Amino acid sequence: KAEEEARRKAEEEARRKAEEEAAAEAERLRKLRESEKTASNTYIILRKYTTGTSKYYGYINFGNGTGNHNLTEEEYHEYYKKYRLLIRD
Q1: Are 28 and 70 in contact (CB under 8 A)?
Q2: 88 in helix, strand or coil?
Q3: Alpha-carbon distances, residue 23 vs 30, 52, 55, 74, 89 (angstroms)
Q4: Residue 47 DSSP label
Q5: What local confidence, expressed as pLDDT, does residue 52 receive?
């Protein structure tokens, strides 16, 4: 019975952690999309991280005062295509 209780608690903790991570990712995407709406029309900063992180490939700064926003590799390449003429080195 103690093993069953420990397993149940571990599963519950794993489920809670997964829900928190999903909520955090949803919030990151919401902020990213919201910031893009007010992006500068003169420049965008898009950079890769020099040391790989487990989750994020790089970041974008829309030049609108909202700061840097982490990007996955797929998002990075999408934004590169979309804003390549506005990217400032």
Answers
A1: yes
A2: coil
A3: 10, 23, 15, 20, 33
A4: E
A5: 67
Residue whose token pair is 């952690």: 17
> Buried b vs exposed e over 52-74: b needs ≥16 C-beta within 10 Å?
eeeebbbbbbbbeeeeebbbeee
Alpha helices in the chain (DSSP H): 2-37, 73-83
Burial of 51 (0-12, 13-18, 19+ CB in 10 A): exposed
pLDDT digits (tens, 9 = 90+) for 3-57: 999 999 999 999 999 999 999 999 999 999 999 998 888 889 999 988 766 789 9
Report CA-CA distances (Å) from 44 to 8, 49, 57, 68: 48, 16, 17, 10
